[in-house]
Write a structure and sequence with these properties.
single chain; about 90 residues; alpha+beta
C-alpha cells in the first residue's frame, strides 16, 4: 500500500438487511410462549356428522398428542408445549 492510499472501507450492515432476524426472533418467542403448532390428524366423535361431539383428537406435530376434549371440540390447529397438561 502506498503512503497516500487509505485501506478499503467496509460497508456497515444496514438495519433493513437484518429484518429476517426479527422474524426468527418473533417466531421463537411465539413458540416459547404458546407452544408448537399441531395439526388435527384423526378424531372420534359421538352423534351425527352435523351435530358431532368429539371424544378423541389426535394432533400431529413436534409433540404428537392424543387429547380427550372435555368441551367436545377439536380445533384444526392447536398449540402444545412439552409436558403441558392436556384437556
Amino acid at each position: 500500500m502506498l503512503p497516500d492510499e487509505h485501506p478499503p472501507r467496509i460497508a456497515p450492515i444496514r438495519p433493513s438487511k437484518l429484518l429476517w432476524a426479527l422474524v426468527v426472533v418473533a417466531a421463537l418467542a411465539f413458540v416459547l410462549s404458546e407452544g408448537w403448532p399441531h395439526l388435527l390428524w384423526n378424531f372420534t366423535y359421538r352423534g351425527d356428522w352435523d351435530h358431532r361431539t368429539y371424544t378423541r383428537c389426535l394432533y400431529v406435530g413436534h409433540h404428537t398428542q392424543t387429547v380427550f376434549p372435555t368441551d367436545g371440540l377439536c380445533p384444526y390447529v392447536r398449540f402444545f408445549k412439552e409436558g403441558a397438561d392436556l384437556g
